[in-house]
Queue: 3 jobs
Job 1
Amino acid sequence: MRTRKRHLTILLAAAYMTAMLAGCGASGGRNTDTGTAHIGIIFTQAGLGGNSFNDLALEGVRRAEAELGITYDQVEPKSVADEEIIQDEMASSGEYDLIICVGDEQVDALNNVASVYTNQRFALLDAASQLDNVASYSCKAQEGCFMVGALAVLAKQEQIDSRLSPGGTVGFIGGVNNPLINQFAAGFKAGAACVDPDITVLTDYVGGFNDPTTARTIANTFYEKGADVIFHASGASGMGLFQAAEEKGFVSIGVNLNQNTIAPDYIMASMLKRLDNCAYHAIASVVEGAYTGENQLLGLSDGGVDFTVEGSNVQVPDAVLQKLEEIRMRVIEGEIEVPGEL
């Protein structure tokens, strides 16, 4: 089978855009020689690198390449304004069996483009659209947060680290006070309460996703109030939490991606939103002829969310991990219903 992997660089100059493609293989949608699906993926303007959501989505596409034999093109827009232009260019080409768009910032553009190209199949990751030709994949963030909330309290109860007190206080730092971030907060609080109904969960909001100074101040305040395990859902602001953990000597929990290696002595675990699995699910639905333009929520049961201690130097004993697996199964089997709202 020929491998076609073209890396597109989009340059927007004045009133027009030039797409540059480099790689091997010819254009032309589905490979008529092999019947393999041809996929396009458009990342957010943040681009690849730095262990971002974009990198995670690309991992899912590469897995599909290896396991399902698909070929793909990838595009890194230089700005949000580029995204609609790129979507339109891909859709109008007729080359793609599926076009994947990553992130909430692409929703408005995608609704415009997908409304025009109604026969083109799209997938939207970590956001939702109501169009029939857009399959939306979102994660039940609250279920992953439930797991790290339970871990936070179990770690304190079992005294897995000398920096942890048996006292009943943990902390949550959100980026902004909105329904999406409160989904994280609700899951974390419920997970903590599942282990200890009397636990106190301190909660505060940074006011933005790129303000590590404020997050650091909040974390220091929480620590002074007895919270020696603090979880964040605050984007780049969370770097301030990790700085405070290192300065004060407490334990933190990362979010969305595996952030453990940022400060492995101070980050015990990370809650994961598995956009790689979402991307793979979307592609597999096309390959298997099961594509439907529906909003799909992936949770613990189907690999949409998880948590990891990999890469951390904070040792979580097997006994604690076993308890967490028991809690996971109770969620998957419906014995525990995790709230998505505070």
Note: Confidence is low (pLDDT under 50) at residues 1-28.
Job 2
Amino acid sequence: MELYHGNFVTSSSIEKLESCTDSYLAVENGVIAGIYPCLPETLRGAPVVELGEDVLIPAFSDLHVHAPQYPQRGLAMDELLHDWLEKHTFPLEARFADLDYARHVYDAFTDEMLARGTMHAVVFGTVHTPATLYLLERMEQKGMLGYVGKVNMDTDSPDSLRESCAGSLAETERFLDACSDSRNVRPILTPRFAPTCTWELLCALGRLTQKYGVGVQTHLVESFWEAAEARRRFPHCSCDTEIYERAGLLDGACVVGAHFIFPSEEDIHILLRHNGFAVQCPDATVSVIAGIMRAGALADRGVRLALGTDLGAGHNLGVYSQVGRAVQLSKLKAFYEPDGNRAISFAQAFYMATRGGGSLFGKVGALEPGYRFDALRLGGLADAYENLSPVQIVERFCYLGDKSHIRARYLAGRRLD
């Protein structure tokens, strides 16, 4: 048994942040055993970590991030989406045919995620099976929780990345078979988005959801162009999300839809029907001018919401930075498009980054009994001349903090540094 004494902040619900001050948090075998305002007699004598003025919070979950785009973070941010993909992203992803190059990038990527407090993630790889397997194995070795996907692209893609339908399906099965014994990081089907996949491939991938019991991640109604192009290519479907439903891709273990910026009513109904996640990636959608998610309105409809960094269109791998940005963008959305939109609170955005997104992986993302002790100790954010509450310290961290303010990281109860 280990004890932590001090101040803790966690989401008790999507609407409320709970602050426990001058309290004791007990951890046993990597799981939170209890939180006590006074130390119980039965726990006296157990080792205690004194937090002082620091604050303990849950670790973050990133539900949409492109690991191979790590080398281009913060670069070419003056490009719009099409040119950014064609001139920078696709040529970079083609380099992951070289496994040695992939190892260097993915080692740095996983280390940086942990350094910035992300311990659970849903990750895009590339079309290359060996490189994507290495990424999954690397995250597994680190003790993270996650889903990693080999990307599928068999049409409307550059020659260096375009697969044949048969080849894409065969490589996907090889990927699924190779990581069947992975315990904490699982495979996930990853059609890049509907316009880069044929109907034949999507339906074949849909059959794999049944055969292997896997989920799906993709980009959903990210832009006006994507929504229109999806309907043009698949005229038997009324909306982007229906394409995946009809192909059988939404019947697996989980559904993670990145962006979900311009959903129709049918898109929303389908995502709700399959209990899927809509993942907001604030920095990324500003960088490529995709749009702003209707986070408040979707929350009111009961859609499961989470946050993603969407590196490398997003330039910061810290999910905490997206908490503040999500609040800012929701205010812009409500101000300029007030009909049907509302701003979200800091508490709601923090929930999306922790307990909300963490629910995909099980009992993570909160400081409560029974939850895995994946946590961050924050410090160095207060002013000597001003007293801040624990919640204010956390809020300041999400707006102006960096990894230097994370003084300790705990993954399944184990201190990483």
Note: The domain at 2-59+365-415 is CATH 2.30.40.10 (Urease, subunit C; domain 1).
Job 3
Amino acid sequence: MEKYPLTEAERRVIRDKATEPPFSGALLNERRPGTYLCRQCGAPLYRSDDKFDAGCGWPSFDDEIPGAVRRQPDADGQRTEIVCARCGAHLGHVFTGEGFTPKQTRHCVNSLSMEFLPAGADRSAHGHSYETAYFAGGCFWGVEYHFRHRTGVVSATSGYMGGRTDSPTYPEVCSGATGHAETVRVIFDPEIVSFEELARLFFEIHDPAQVNRQGPDIGEQYRSEILYTSEAQRRTADALIDRLTAAGYDVATRLTPAATFWPAEAYHQDYYDRRGVTPACHLRVKRF
């Protein structure tokens, strides 16, 4: 499944399972925020948040995007090989129990097996397209968690949208004076997951019937809202609301054109995964 032409060196690694020389890879010292994609098919594999310096000479990650990487016994009978779950491209090997990070996992990946998509970019160097969606459904910690763990999501970022204040802070948003909602920006690969699938997930991880609150969190900043980026997204969300309404739900979710997204402070990002726990308030309830 070769979507993009490979160089001879890339073919040796990706197809023939060779290993690039240590400290030679172009992505070894890449420090910018963004996403690492499969060089062969363009599928998102790793996030920059999970990259660390293991001193081994190859890019190292202590986690993968859920469902993106497959483990299998290596031909040497000793190591565990990792490959792209979509196309089978050889990535490298995974090791556990080494103590580099609390996750006790090191994905040792060849730079030649990947390409890098900087945060905020809509396309890779090869033209692979991604889409963006914005969802507000109570405290953004839980909403971000569920989207971050959805296969096909490249990144999920907590932030603020829909208000009157530029560069709002968390205390300002919590005061109710800004009009912003706690919002999660979701960048996703439409070849893997559709906007409709993401919107269904959104309606099932929070209570869309609550007005300006989610459980104990009360205030306009906790409202239920989809901030659409296209007319197609609006129509899809509207159709899902009609289905929920027909099923007896009194849906309070707003549909609003997306505006400027203001990323939240660093301590809000990846909140639950950094603590090694799961959300207590955003539990998935089947509604479709």
Note: The chain is about 20% helix and 25% strand.
